[in-house]
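User: For documentation purposes, I need each entry recorded in a consistent format: the amino acid sequence on its own, followed directly by the corresponding structure tokens. There are two entries in this batch. Please keep commentary to a minimum and don't merge the entries.

Assistant: Recorded as requested. Entry 1:
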Amino acid sequence: MYERFYGFRELPFDLTPNPRRLVATDVHREALSTFEYAIASRTGIALLIGEAGTGKTTVIRAAIEKQAGQAHCIHLDNPALTREEFVEMLAVRFGLSARARRSKTRLLLELEELLRQRSARRETTVLIIDEAQSLTIELLEEIRLLANLETNDEKLLSVVIAGQPEMADRLNDRVLRQLKQRVALRCELRPLTAKETIGYVAGRIQAVGGVPARVFTAEAVTLIAERSGGIPRTINVIADNALLGGFAAEQRPVTCQLVREVCRDFDIKASHAVDSRGRSARPQADPPPDGGGDDGAREQPDGPGRTDTAPFHQILRRLRRMPLFRPQWRSSSY
């Protein structure tokens, strides 16, 4: 879409959890180190807690890619399964026999044999359970039992459980006390501070060959930090759509006015980002719809075309009518 206009090799704010796009903020660096160790040392169950969109899946995939030897990864991200469907899903993902899909006993026998063979070859197997806060107690118990597969010296299966903050509350339930006791490592991903958000945006742009100062004004990035609340997925949504709007208006760098239009279009209200000390930062108030009081909106683009910007929803309607964009249009939600 807009890559050539801004000098990018590829889209910088794509929403897929690509480990190559992980920006090493302090909070992500700590989580990455924790899970690299958890997988390499086969500690059993590791727990990653974080709000939706904080980058849990990206951190886990990056940790797996950094393993020295071969790592087999099975990722389960649909919690709406019955016990029978869970058994079938595991059998299919691990490449077990048709009998294992119908029998839990057969599943466990074949899975243990497979894991022992891989362990003998010094290969690691990781089971990632995503959206764990929505799993039934029955399935959480099945996951705990899978983590019990072991030899006298080591665990045969590394289990990574990723969930939103409600998962931490669920583990305090007495029914799940055995699962909680088996959590060997635990880490929490908090939202980014305003300073970390600025570094995140710059890092994403630099990773695809762009120059941050030529893409967003400083005021625009500050506004993205405030409106996103430091949630990386929301940062990506705002930044990606602001770049699209700037491309349609032939305007660069992107200013506060375009960022505000995006936030209005997606109904992203002013959020309290956290500062470097973990305190809530005061959000900027919206100016009148005509952009009054927004210094960034009066900046001149460095390319040809208009010096003002149409409301963002009008820009999107124009783009959708252009044949060039129809085959490539992407949804901005997960």
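Entry 2:
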Amino acid sequence: MRSRDAGSCLRQVVLIATVALTTLFVVPARSTTLDDLVSSVVRVKTFINPDGTSVANLGREREGSGLVIDESGLVLTIGYLMVEAHAAEIISSSGRALPASVVGYDHETGFGLLRTLEPPKLKPLAFGRSADLKEQDPALVVSYGGTGAVLPVRVASRREFTGSWEYLVEGAIFTSPPHPAWSGAALINHDGKLVGVGSLIVGDASGRGDGPGNMFVPIDALPPILGDLIADGRIVGPGRPWLGVTTNEAQGRLVVAAVTPGSPAEKAGVRRGDVIVGVGGAVAKGLADFYRGIYAQGAAGATIPLDVLHDGEHRRFDVKSMNRLDHLKLKSTF
């Protein structure tokens, strides 16, 4: 039997979705229609500062979905689509293209904000409460591309997510089946409200080895920082400490896979292949434990007593941390 591309498979699933909306899913709140949801999800295209530190991993031009969240044209997306961007464009489901400016980025949640230079005349998505989502609840994933990009899913699990790039999300939302266009996609609850923003595809959505899915950043993390992002482009204050290490869990060990050039970790002497033992004498039992050990030392700027196995010897590196945003080539208005 011939394999089919993701787009063909998704179109088949959408045929099922039209039925599922009346069975699995209580059709969105009376004031919201499926057409409203689809039109509120736009295409995001960004152009990145050529000197940006994220270019090597993410490229100079990026595309994904964005979510209109107010009538003036504020667009929420996943931050890796727009971090270090110097220009951006928003394209509506009708094909209308609008230039957009960079508003703000938050490394801790992974959210990014853009704003169209003129109102897009699209109905904004209303926020739901991601805290109310439970395992096995039905939901919709909506990415840019019209009704052909709508996929009914279920919540596979609610748990923390740790990324190798010093990223920790509490109460992340994992859904199944996986949507092939997850970046910046909207997770919509049974009331037709936004409860998550698409971040990743994962191999184990349930945490029990049941199969792949997507990870969404909970929308509840946005309101506490939204004002700061709009006013200042970043959250107020020093933020979490950042070292600049990419760390993988392998055979029960935390192995440094990469060290960011010019980062605090590199300056302190940490190298690729080192094994993270812990922080300040406390053994790290996993990535989440490692990150919490770093955060417990204080805000960005704190010196982190990093215990590592370096060249076969146990070493203590005192790493002078920094705010991750201060290492990026962000807009001067940040």
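Summary note for entry 2:
The first helix runs from residue 6 to 23.
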